[in-house]
Amino acid sequence: MRAADRLDYLDGWRVAAILMVFADHLGMNHAIGALYEKSPLGVIAQYGETGVFIFFFISGYVVSLGCLKEAAATGDFSARAFYIRRFFRIVPPLMAYLTTLLALGSAGVIDFGWDHFASAALYLCNSTAPGVACNWYVGHTWSLAFEAQFYFLFPAVFAWLALDRAPRFLPAAAAVAFAAVPAVFTIWWIGKIGCVIAYALFFAGFLAAKHSIRRDAPRALTALRVSDGWRIPVMIGAATIVFMPRSVIASFGADEAAKGALIAWYRLLYIGAVPTLVLLSGAAGTALRRLLSLGVLAWLGRASYSVYLWQQLCNGPVFNGLDAGSQIALMGVVILFCLMMFPLEQRLVGYGRALSRRLESPAAGRVQPPGILVST
């Protein structure tokens, strides 16, 4: 999304989501993990996956909103331009991280080889497909794998639902096959329900963006129309669902299998609760929106992708024996490194946008696609 069109409160949510992942992964450190086990602080380690689910919805919403605006402005949608933008946003930071891991692995510092590199680079770490090898250092790319699979599906779905055009069969079939990999070769802790939630949140983002375009909601700063009297109670209800500790849900299970099943099925509520919470937090003029839109939070949110990638390294097995202070200091150094590299990341994203604009259809003489209404 271009700077002029950004919804800064969503970047604030990205910061909240990455903090949830941090809190979870810091528990891998022996000292911090022991602290979690013997104190109420342990509850904060239960929200790592919740943070990723929030990322999924925001990604689906922001990507869809940008493409809907492109279609409204040009009368068409270029899948090639879309993939170029996504490539320069996602691939360079990932390759920088994976190349560093490969160098550390070659030096014997960490356990990492070409099989791990290939599995992450091919976006397969959300599956147990034959030949896939994903250890801790790339285990978190399960979320990038779902995102890449959504991007493969997106042009076909967009053509069908936004442009009222039938997608081409072979590309659509290939995209569906790729997206089905995690559902066929399922990782136990994601589960088939987790696959459903991931795709549902991405496409909930698409539907929310489509609704926003129809109602010009970016001007109203929310894609949900809820009266002021109901907004806060609905938000509280959604927040209660999203942030209910898993330990509370599991307490109703008679054994470990029942506890796991309860948590898995409960997560389905995220499909409605996460979009509701995120979108209602963007209501115009509210204190929560102002908080989430603070300049420093918005900036950190935009830099959160690389931070998400690199935090996995400093929480890896080679560093788990550090004392708590050293572990947190190492995390701070990694975050600082990512923030220093962010301007380069932005330049690459800008180059991708410039390149994609050459492939976008000119607006002159084109008919506005059906299903998109834009206020004037």
TrEMBL record:
Q: What is this protein called?
A: Acyltransferase 3 domain-containing protein
Ranges for domain Acyltransferase: 8-341
Organism of origin: Methylocystis echinoides
Gene Ontology biological-process annotations: lipopolysaccharide biosynthetic process
Fetch the InterPro entries from UniProt.
Acyl_transf_3_dom, Acyltransferase_3
Q: TM segments?
A: 12-32, 52-73, 94-114, 142-162, 169-190, 196-213, 234-252, 264-284, 291-308, 328-344
Q: Does the keyword Membrane apply?
A: yes
What UniProt keywords apply to this chain's record, in alphabetical order?
Answer: Membrane, Transmembrane, Transmembrane helix
